[in-house]
Amino acid sequence: MQLAIGALGAVLLLSGAVLTASPVAVSVTVPALLLAPGLRAFPWERAVRMWWRMKWFYLSLALFFGLWPVGGGTAAGLLEAATRIVALMLVVLAVVWLTDRYARTELVPALGSVLGGRRGSALGAGHSFARRLFLALEAFERDRAGIEARRGRLSGDRRARVDAVREWLVQRLDAALDPAESEQPAPGSPMPVREDRWRGVETGWMALVGMVALGLQWGGWVTG
């Protein structure tokens, strides 16, 4: 579990470095991740699918910063939007790496122990939150067909159908959190996990990349 905690920390560190959309941090992180050990075994198809699922969010960033740039003209706004889009894609890439290299049975207790102690303890709410988080992530990635089919069987306007599907998803997550069902797999096919000897090396590399990017960003703030 210690290695899984380290992997969670590495992803959070990297995310914190790039989500501020610092051009230097993003520019350094892109080639650094492409040089990560075990790259040929990376699930690029999953990453591309996740990127595609978020296409409308990327478009909204481009429109928002292009039409209402914070500073400068439209070109500067579009450049900032592009930087933020690449930063978000890097975070998605890191999450895909995390869930590919570590099973949910490793990640849930790791995150739960960080947030609120061991399962069954007085602070066990952290375990429930962690389980809900990873179940929601898996449903978002792998159960799109089931969600669309459910929405298609409902009546009413689009808003009512979306609200009904949201409530249905919450009920599914609550059912999955029931102690009697706690060891059952999530809805849909379980995520394949690649366990190999490179996991520790990759985890260290991700943490190093995050620290370097964060250091460059912090240095820019100090000198700026």
Automatic annotation (TrEMBL):
The chain crosses the membrane at residues 56-78, 85-103, 204-223. Keywords: Membrane, Transmembrane, Transmembrane helix. This is Uncharacterized protein. It comes from Thioalkalivibrio halophilus. The lineage of its organism: Bacteria, Pseudomonadati, Pseudomonadota, Gammaproteobacteria, Chromatiales.
